[in-house]
Write a structure and sequence with these properties.
11% strand, 129 residues, two-stranded antiparallel ribbon
């Protein structure tokens, strides 16, 4: 009787990397959907942002990438007005400090759903039942 040993470490590491990146993409997609859903009609009150359609369409995330510490991605928008509303600003017309938080509460509320989406994708790709 003969025994043969096969080294599959490279394939296992590549499979785990792929699963990690796709799991992160699934988790950040959950967060993106939560952020877009939270934008209400009262988020921007004036100017070209009477409709939040511009902001909803501008929310994007980068394809996940590997770093020495794990996997990373970036979720955000390039519209500086969203930053002014999120952090707060002195409104020239109402003469009050105005702030409407969307990103942080959406992130806190969707933590469990993001974790579940990540776990589902990684389990499926790694061959778990």
């Amino acid at each position: 009787m003969s025994v043969s040993v096969v080294d599959n470490r490279r394939q296992a590491v590549a499979r785990a990397d792929n699963a990690g990146m796709l799991g992160l993409a699934a988790a950040v997609a959950v967060l993106k959907n939560a952020v877009v859903k939270q934008f209400g009609s009262s988020y921007y009150k004036g100017g070209r942002f009477r409709s939040t359609l511009f902001v909803k369409q501008s929310v994007r995330f980068l394809t996940p990438y590997k770093t020495p510490d794990g996997y990373e991605t970036i979720l955000g928008t390039k519209l500086i007005e969203a930053l002014y509303w999120e952090l707060g600003h002195q409104n020239l017309f109402t003469r009050r400090h105005e702030r409407v938080q969307i990103w942080e509460p959406a992130g806190m509320a969707s933590t469990g759903a993001m974790r579940d989406a990540y776990a589902r994708v990684v389990a499926r790709l790694m061959g778990a039942a």
